[in-house]
Specification:
Elements: E1 2-8, E2 11-16, H1 22-39, E3 42-47, H2 58-73, E4 77-83, H3 87-99, E5 107-110, H4 113-125
Parallel strand pairs: 2-3, 3-4, 4-5
Antiparallel strand pairs: 1-2
Length: 137
C-alpha cells in the first residue's frame, strides 16, 4: 500500500508499506498519473526507509522504474527527493536508479526527511539549481 499526501501541492509526500505487491505498485503509478493529469507537475518526497529489502523483488524494481520513467517522459516531475535511512535500502535504491532511463529533472537521495524537505523548498524557490546526486546523498 502507498500513501500520497497532496496537502502542500506541488509537493507530494509519499510513503510505502514495508511490503508491496505488483498490483499495489500499479495502483500507485495510476494514482500518480491521475494527480499529474488533474493538477500538473509535482515534486515528490518519497520515504522508502520502511521497505523490507527482501520483499522488493527485481520485478517490482523494474516496474517502478518503467512507470516512473513514463511519468518523467511526460515531464510530470519538478524533482524527486528520496529518503533512505539504511545502507541496505540505499543499495536497493542504487539498483533501481540504474534501471531508470529518463532523466528530465533533479533526483537526489537524503538520509532524513528534514534534509529532503529543505532541498525540495530550495528547488521550488529556484535556489537548488539542477543539483542531482543519484543515488548518494
Amino acid at each position: 500500500m502507498h500513501y500520497i499526501d497532496q496537502s502542500q501541492f506541488p509537493i507530494l509526500r509519499i510513503r510505502f508499506d514495508p511490503e508491496n505487491t505488483y498490483e499495489e505498485l500499479n495502483a500507485y503509478l495510476s494514482d500518480m498519473e491521475a494527480i499529474f493529469a488533474e493538477h500538473g507537475k509535482f515534486l515528490t518526497i518519497t520515504d522508502i526507509s520502511n521497505l523490507q529489502p527482501l520483499k522488493v523483488s527485481s520485478r517490482l524494481r523494474h516496474r517502478m522504474a518503467e512507470g516512473v520513467d513514463q511519468l518523467a517522459y511526460k515531464k510530470a516531475f519538478i524533482a524527486e527527493a528520496v529518503v533512505i535511512s539504511s545502507p541496505i535500502i540505499r543499495g536497493l535504491f542504487t539498483a533501481y536508479s540504474w534501471l531508470r532511463r529518463v532523466s528530465t529533472h533533479p533526483l537526489r537521495s537524503f538520509r532524513n526527511m528534514e534534509e529532503a524537505e529543505q532541498w525540495a523548498q530550495a528547488i521550488l524557490r529556484g535556489k537548488a539549481g539542477n543539483q542531482s546526486k543519484t543515488p548518494a546523498s
